[in-house]
Amino acid sequence: MSLRDFLSKQFIDVIEWVEPDDGILAYRYPMQDREIQNGGKLTVRDSQMAVFVNEGRVADVFAPGLYTLNTQTLPILTYLMNWDKAFKSPFKSDVYFFSTRLQTNQRWGTPNPITIRDKEFGAVRIRAFGIYTYHIVDPKTFYTKISGTRDLYTVPELEGQLRNTIVGRMTDTFANSQVPFLDMAANQVAMADKLLASLKPGFAEYGLLLDSFVVENLSLPDELQKILDQRIGMNMVGDIGRYTQFEVAQSIPIAAANEGAGTAGIGAGLGAGVAMGQVMMDALRKPGSSQPDPGAESAATGAETKFCTNCGKSIPKSSKFCPECGHPQQ
Question: Which of 54, 109, 144, 276 has the greatest CB tally within 10 Å of its CB?
């Protein structure tokens, strides 16, 4: 190399990186055939780490701080390049910066319902979504397995991989938890903590630490949710007899407001409702019960009576006219 060529070469005295935007995980310092000056400065700010790579091999990793680049601060690189302690000349090495800031408000969710075995409902399909937070803790592993020699690596590029990792591990966690779906939905914080513990090893494989994991919603598909709502409604009703009485009472103002139905229709509807309630009560009564049947007398009477087609009053079956309203009977 001539003296002129040597003087025209560019040397890097200060290596540093200021993040221009959010969402950058890895950044390659632009060398452009420039050499790092022996005794130059490396500035690694808080929420950053730096990695020196020589001929494709990770040499040295630097935590936040200000470093003077020499054989003392580059021990592994010195060993790889066979420098002696008196090394004075400039050198070349790829330098990568990694952001160790928390990557917050990362969304996760099940694109399709996942099937699990439930103690109460058998096999069910559930949906879930929420947020999580992570950051880089091992830049060497992240460089080796994820970012590589890219000039820039961003959060969106990693999002799909992490989301699929979450959903895959979530299925195993749900399957092994043996916790009924209703208990999962009622204890989402405890479920999130369990998922956090099971997901951390998967993130560590990429040099990441999963800091927080939140389950915002745990639900069934619409068709299964309707069935669950019906079951909850029946459990809330409890006594079918009272439920029937309630339904009949609710139908009275509705029938009265129906001007096109006519008085005969109202009476017939009420009578049918009462009779249907009695049938339901008889069907639900346990066979062989020794307790007196409160509906036996009414059933016996019902065999000799009928309902007035006008007012709905119970009248003798043989009556030609209603004793209450005088309406002719068939």
Answer: 54
Domain that holds residue 30: 8-99
CB 262 within 8 A of CB 301: no
Quick: pLDDT tens for 70-123. 888 888 888 877 777 677 778 888 999 999 999 999 999 888 887 777 776 677
β strands within the chain, DSSP E: 11-15, 24-28, 35-44, 48-54, 57-62, 65-68, 94-99, 103-109, 114-118, 122-136, 152-154, 208-219, 305-307, 314-316
Q: Does residue 329 sit within a domain? A: yes
Task: Note whether 152 and 107 are same-domain residues.
Answer: yes
Instruction: Provide the pairing of β-strand 24-28 with 152-154.
Output: antiparallel
Q: 233 in a domain, yes or no?
A: no
- Give the whole-angstrom CA distance, residue 140 versus residue 157: 18
CA distance 14 to 42: 6
H or E element at residue 89: none
Look at residue 3 and tell me if it is in a domain. Answer: no
232, part of any domain: no
Per-residue pLDDT tens digits for 32-76: 677 888 888 999 999 999 999 988 889 999 999 999 988 888 888
pTM more than 0.85: no
On the question of pLDDT at 14 being above 60, the answer is: yes
